[in-house]
Design brief:
The chain is of the alpha/beta class. The chain has helices at residues 14-23, 36-44, 71-74, 112-116, 132-145, 162-168, 183-192, 251-266; strands at 7-8, 30-34, 51-55, 76-80, 97-102, 121-127, 149-152, 177-178, 196-200, 206-207, 216-222, 236-239. The chain folds into two domains: 7-102, 60s Ribosomal Protein L30, Chain: A (2-Layer Sandwich), CATH 3.30.1330.30; 109-276, 3-Layer(aba) Sandwich (Alpha/beta knot), CATH 3.40.1280. 27% of the residues lie in helices and 19% in strands. The longest helix has 16 residues, at 251-266.
Protein backbone atom coordinates (compact mmCIF):
# COMPACT_ATOMS: atom_id res chain seq x y z
CA UNK A 1 0.00 0.00 0.00
CA UNK A 2 2.95 2.24 -0.42
CA UNK A 3 1.69 3.97 -3.61
CA UNK A 4 -1.54 4.63 -5.44
CA UNK A 5 -3.96 1.84 -6.24
CA UNK A 6 -6.73 1.27 -8.69
CA UNK A 7 -9.91 1.16 -6.64
CA UNK A 8 -12.24 -1.80 -7.13
CA UNK A 9 -15.78 -0.52 -7.64
CA UNK A 10 -17.63 -3.61 -8.83
CA UNK A 11 -18.95 -6.50 -6.73
CA UNK A 12 -18.20 -8.83 -9.64
CA UNK A 13 -14.46 -8.23 -9.33
CA UNK A 14 -12.59 -11.55 -9.21
CA UNK A 15 -10.78 -10.75 -5.94
CA UNK A 16 -14.03 -9.89 -4.16
CA UNK A 17 -15.76 -12.97 -5.56
CA UNK A 18 -12.97 -15.15 -4.23
CA UNK A 19 -13.13 -13.45 -0.83
CA UNK A 20 -16.87 -14.13 -0.62
CA UNK A 21 -16.32 -17.79 -1.52
CA UNK A 22 -13.61 -18.16 1.12
CA UNK A 23 -15.88 -16.45 3.65
CA UNK A 24 -18.60 -19.00 2.89
CA UNK A 25 -16.22 -21.91 3.36
CA UNK A 26 -16.15 -22.81 -0.33
CA UNK A 27 -12.36 -22.84 -0.72
CA UNK A 28 -10.80 -25.55 1.42
CA UNK A 29 -7.66 -24.62 3.30
CA UNK A 30 -8.32 -20.87 3.34
CA UNK A 31 -10.07 -18.54 5.74
CA UNK A 32 -11.35 -14.99 5.40
CA UNK A 33 -10.32 -12.77 8.31
CA UNK A 34 -12.21 -9.52 8.82
CA UNK A 35 -11.16 -6.51 10.86
CA UNK A 36 -7.86 -4.79 11.56
CA UNK A 37 -7.22 -6.19 15.04
CA UNK A 38 -7.67 -9.84 14.07
CA UNK A 39 -5.59 -9.42 10.92
CA UNK A 40 -2.78 -7.78 12.86
CA UNK A 41 -2.96 -10.60 15.43
CA UNK A 42 -2.58 -13.12 12.61
CA UNK A 43 0.35 -11.26 11.07
CA UNK A 44 2.11 -10.85 14.42
CA UNK A 45 1.76 -14.62 14.94
CA UNK A 46 3.62 -15.23 11.67
CA UNK A 47 0.72 -15.79 9.28
CA UNK A 48 1.08 -14.11 5.89
CA UNK A 49 -2.10 -13.25 3.96
CA UNK A 50 -2.37 -14.09 0.28
CA UNK A 51 -4.60 -11.06 -0.24
CA UNK A 52 -5.43 -7.98 1.81
CA UNK A 53 -8.37 -5.79 0.81
CA UNK A 54 -8.60 -2.32 2.33
CA UNK A 55 -11.52 0.08 2.28
CA UNK A 56 -10.70 3.16 0.24
CA UNK A 57 -11.73 5.55 3.00
CA UNK A 58 -9.47 3.86 5.59
CA UNK A 59 -6.43 3.16 3.47
CA UNK A 60 -4.05 5.40 5.43
CA UNK A 61 -4.58 3.37 8.62
CA UNK A 62 -3.17 0.24 6.94
CA UNK A 63 -0.26 1.57 4.88
CA UNK A 64 2.26 0.24 7.41
CA UNK A 65 1.30 -3.32 6.49
CA UNK A 66 2.92 -2.81 3.08
CA UNK A 67 6.33 -2.56 4.71
CA UNK A 68 5.86 -5.43 7.16
CA UNK A 69 8.53 -7.96 6.15
CA UNK A 70 7.10 -10.78 4.08
CA UNK A 71 3.86 -8.94 3.42
CA UNK A 72 5.58 -6.46 1.12
CA UNK A 73 6.58 -9.20 -1.33
CA UNK A 74 4.17 -12.08 -0.66
CA UNK A 75 0.79 -10.37 -0.26
CA UNK A 76 -1.46 -8.96 -2.96
CA UNK A 77 -2.82 -5.60 -1.73
CA UNK A 78 -6.10 -4.34 -3.14
CA UNK A 79 -8.30 -1.33 -2.40
CA UNK A 80 -12.05 -1.23 -2.87
CA UNK A 81 -14.94 1.15 -2.36
CA UNK A 82 -15.93 1.10 1.31
CA UNK A 83 -19.35 -0.46 0.80
CA UNK A 84 -17.97 -3.41 -1.19
CA UNK A 85 -16.49 -4.95 1.96
CA UNK A 86 -20.04 -5.54 3.20
CA UNK A 87 -21.14 -9.14 2.86
CA UNK A 88 -17.70 -10.63 2.26
CA UNK A 89 -17.95 -12.65 5.44
CA UNK A 90 -20.20 -12.89 8.47
CA UNK A 91 -19.83 -9.37 9.88
CA UNK A 92 -22.96 -7.23 9.70
CA UNK A 93 -20.94 -4.01 9.56
CA UNK A 94 -18.35 -3.70 6.82
CA UNK A 95 -14.78 -3.91 8.21
CA UNK A 96 -12.10 -1.56 7.02
CA UNK A 97 -9.79 -4.44 6.19
CA UNK A 98 -10.23 -8.06 5.13
CA UNK A 99 -7.72 -10.73 4.25
CA UNK A 100 -7.51 -14.17 2.70
CA UNK A 101 -5.18 -16.41 4.72
CA UNK A 102 -4.25 -20.05 4.61
CA UNK A 103 -5.70 -21.90 7.58
CA UNK A 104 -3.17 -22.21 10.41
CA UNK A 105 -1.38 -25.54 10.52
CA UNK A 106 -2.75 -28.15 12.90
CA UNK A 107 -1.18 -31.15 14.61
CA UNK A 108 -2.25 -34.78 14.43
CA UNK A 109 -2.74 -36.61 17.70
CA UNK A 110 0.60 -38.43 17.25
CA UNK A 111 2.35 -35.05 17.34
CA UNK A 112 1.03 -34.26 20.81
CA UNK A 113 4.14 -35.46 22.74
CA UNK A 114 6.20 -32.78 21.04
CA UNK A 115 3.83 -30.11 22.34
CA UNK A 116 3.49 -31.22 25.96
CA UNK A 117 6.85 -32.78 26.84
CA UNK A 118 7.22 -34.93 29.97
CA UNK A 119 6.53 -32.39 32.71
CA UNK A 120 3.49 -30.55 34.03
CA UNK A 121 1.07 -29.61 31.27
CA UNK A 122 -2.50 -28.44 30.83
CA UNK A 123 -4.61 -29.29 27.78
CA UNK A 124 -8.11 -28.23 26.80
CA UNK A 125 -10.16 -30.91 25.06
CA UNK A 126 -13.27 -29.94 23.11
CA UNK A 127 -15.88 -32.53 22.14
CA UNK A 128 -19.14 -31.54 20.51
CA UNK A 129 -19.14 -27.75 20.99
CA UNK A 130 -21.48 -26.56 18.25
CA UNK A 131 -21.29 -22.77 18.55
CA UNK A 132 -18.07 -21.54 16.89
CA UNK A 133 -18.08 -18.45 19.11
CA UNK A 134 -18.01 -20.70 22.19
CA UNK A 135 -15.17 -22.73 20.69
CA UNK A 136 -13.14 -19.60 20.03
CA UNK A 137 -13.79 -18.23 23.51
CA UNK A 138 -12.68 -21.50 25.08
CA UNK A 139 -9.41 -21.39 23.14
CA UNK A 140 -8.90 -17.83 24.38
CA UNK A 141 -9.37 -18.99 27.98
CA UNK A 142 -7.05 -21.94 27.37
CA UNK A 143 -4.28 -19.60 26.25
CA UNK A 144 -4.85 -17.34 29.25
CA UNK A 145 -4.68 -20.33 31.63
CA UNK A 146 -1.43 -21.54 30.10
CA UNK A 147 -2.65 -24.56 28.13
CA UNK A 148 -0.01 -26.22 25.96
CA UNK A 149 -2.54 -27.28 23.32
CA UNK A 150 -6.21 -27.59 22.48
CA UNK A 151 -7.55 -30.93 21.21
CA UNK A 152 -10.64 -30.50 19.03
CA UNK A 153 -12.49 -33.76 18.41
CA UNK A 154 -14.53 -34.23 15.22
CA UNK A 155 -18.24 -33.49 15.24
CA UNK A 156 -18.43 -29.87 16.36
CA UNK A 157 -17.65 -26.36 15.19
CA UNK A 158 -14.66 -25.78 12.91
CA UNK A 159 -11.77 -24.16 14.74
CA UNK A 160 -10.87 -21.78 11.92
CA UNK A 161 -14.26 -20.49 10.85
CA UNK A 162 -14.67 -16.71 11.02
CA UNK A 163 -16.86 -16.77 14.16
CA UNK A 164 -14.45 -19.04 16.01
CA UNK A 165 -11.52 -16.83 15.06
CA UNK A 166 -13.29 -13.71 16.30
CA UNK A 167 -14.37 -15.45 19.51
CA UNK A 168 -10.77 -16.40 20.21
CA UNK A 169 -9.56 -12.79 19.82
CA UNK A 170 -6.42 -14.09 18.11
CA UNK A 171 -5.73 -17.07 20.38
CA UNK A 172 -6.41 -19.56 17.56
CA UNK A 173 -3.37 -18.14 15.78
CA UNK A 174 -1.12 -18.84 18.76
CA UNK A 175 -2.30 -21.97 20.59
CA UNK A 176 -1.42 -25.32 18.97
CA UNK A 177 -4.58 -27.05 17.72
CA UNK A 178 -4.62 -30.85 17.66
CA UNK A 179 -7.15 -32.59 15.40
CA UNK A 180 -7.51 -36.31 16.17
CA UNK A 181 -9.27 -38.72 13.84
CA UNK A 182 -11.77 -39.55 16.58
CA UNK A 183 -12.59 -38.68 20.17
CA UNK A 184 -11.76 -42.22 21.23
CA UNK A 185 -8.28 -42.09 19.71
CA UNK A 186 -7.60 -38.80 21.50
CA UNK A 187 -8.67 -40.21 24.88
CA UNK A 188 -6.45 -43.27 24.39
CA UNK A 189 -3.42 -41.25 23.34
CA UNK A 190 -3.75 -38.79 26.21
CA UNK A 191 -4.03 -41.67 28.68
CA UNK A 192 -0.86 -43.21 27.26
CA UNK A 193 0.94 -39.91 27.89
CA UNK A 194 -0.01 -39.98 31.57
CA UNK A 195 -2.70 -37.30 31.58
CA UNK A 196 -5.51 -37.22 34.09
CA UNK A 197 -8.65 -36.61 32.03
CA UNK A 198 -11.40 -34.54 33.58
CA UNK A 199 -14.70 -33.54 32.04
CA UNK A 200 -17.11 -30.83 33.01
CA UNK A 201 -20.25 -32.38 34.52
CA UNK A 202 -23.37 -30.36 35.24
CA UNK A 203 -24.09 -32.53 38.27
CA UNK A 204 -22.84 -35.65 40.03
CA UNK A 205 -19.10 -35.09 39.61
CA UNK A 206 -16.39 -34.33 42.12
CA UNK A 207 -16.48 -30.79 43.45
CA UNK A 208 -14.27 -28.28 41.68
CA UNK A 209 -13.24 -26.95 45.11
CA UNK A 210 -11.92 -30.24 46.43
CA UNK A 211 -10.57 -32.16 43.43
CA UNK A 212 -6.75 -32.50 43.52
CA UNK A 213 -5.86 -31.80 39.89
CA UNK A 214 -2.83 -33.62 38.49
CA UNK A 215 0.25 -31.90 37.10
CA UNK A 216 -0.71 -33.35 33.71
CA UNK A 217 -4.40 -32.67 33.17
CA UNK A 218 -6.82 -32.54 30.27
CA UNK A 219 -10.04 -30.60 30.80
CA UNK A 220 -12.71 -31.84 28.40
CA UNK A 221 -15.65 -29.57 27.63
CA UNK A 222 -18.63 -31.11 25.88
CA UNK A 223 -21.64 -29.80 23.98
CA UNK A 224 -23.68 -26.85 25.13
CA UNK A 225 -26.54 -29.24 26.00
CA UNK A 226 -24.36 -31.06 28.53
CA UNK A 227 -24.62 -34.36 26.66
CA UNK A 228 -21.75 -36.65 27.65
CA UNK A 229 -20.09 -38.62 24.82
CA UNK A 230 -19.65 -42.30 25.60
CA UNK A 231 -15.88 -41.99 25.04
CA UNK A 232 -15.60 -39.60 28.00
CA UNK A 233 -17.64 -41.60 30.49
CA UNK A 234 -14.45 -43.00 32.02
CA UNK A 235 -13.07 -39.53 32.71
CA UNK A 236 -13.33 -37.83 36.09
CA UNK A 237 -16.43 -35.67 36.18
CA UNK A 238 -15.91 -32.25 37.77
CA UNK A 239 -18.94 -30.28 38.95
CA UNK A 240 -18.93 -26.57 39.76
CA UNK A 241 -20.84 -25.86 43.01
CA UNK A 242 -23.61 -23.33 42.42
CA UNK A 243 -25.86 -21.41 44.78
CA UNK A 244 -29.41 -20.23 44.41
CA UNK A 245 -31.57 -21.69 41.68
CA UNK A 246 -28.92 -21.70 38.95
CA UNK A 247 -28.74 -25.15 37.35
CA UNK A 248 -25.89 -24.66 34.89
CA UNK A 249 -23.40 -22.18 33.46
CA UNK A 250 -22.55 -21.18 29.92
CA UNK A 251 -19.97 -23.62 28.57
CA UNK A 252 -17.31 -20.93 28.23
CA UNK A 253 -17.82 -19.70 31.79
CA UNK A 254 -17.66 -23.26 33.10
CA UNK A 255 -14.60 -23.95 30.97
CA UNK A 256 -12.82 -20.92 32.37
CA UNK A 257 -13.40 -22.02 35.97
CA UNK A 258 -12.27 -25.58 35.26
CA UNK A 259 -9.17 -24.55 33.32
CA UNK A 260 -7.98 -22.12 35.95
CA UNK A 261 -8.55 -24.69 38.68
CA UNK A 262 -6.69 -27.35 36.68
CA UNK A 263 -3.85 -24.89 36.05
CA UNK A 264 -3.12 -24.98 39.78
CA UNK A 265 -1.96 -28.56 39.31
CA UNK A 266 -0.28 -28.08 35.94
CA UNK A 267 1.88 -25.29 37.35
CA UNK A 268 2.80 -27.27 40.44
CA UNK A 269 0.60 -25.15 42.76
CA UNK A 270 -1.71 -27.34 44.76
CA UNK A 271 -3.98 -24.58 46.04
CA UNK A 272 -6.83 -23.16 44.00
CA UNK A 273 -6.55 -19.60 42.77
CA UNK A 274 -8.10 -17.33 45.40
CA UNK A 275 -11.00 -16.43 43.13
CA UNK A 276 -12.15 -20.07 43.12
CA UNK A 277 -11.98 -20.69 46.87
Amino acid sequence: MGGSFEVIRSRTNAVLKRARNVGRGKEAGFVLIEGERLIRDAVSAGHVPEVLIAAEGQLEAYRDLATNGDLATRTEFRVCADTLLEGLGSLKTAPGLAGIFREPATTAIDGLPGLVGDGPALILGVAGIQDPGNLGALVRVAEAAGAAAVVVAPGGARPFGSKALRGSMGSLFRVPIVLPESLGSAVERLASLGFEQCVGATRGGQSLRSHPFSERTVVWMTSETGEMPAELEGCTGITIPMRGRVESLNVTVAGALLLYAAASGATGRRELPAILN
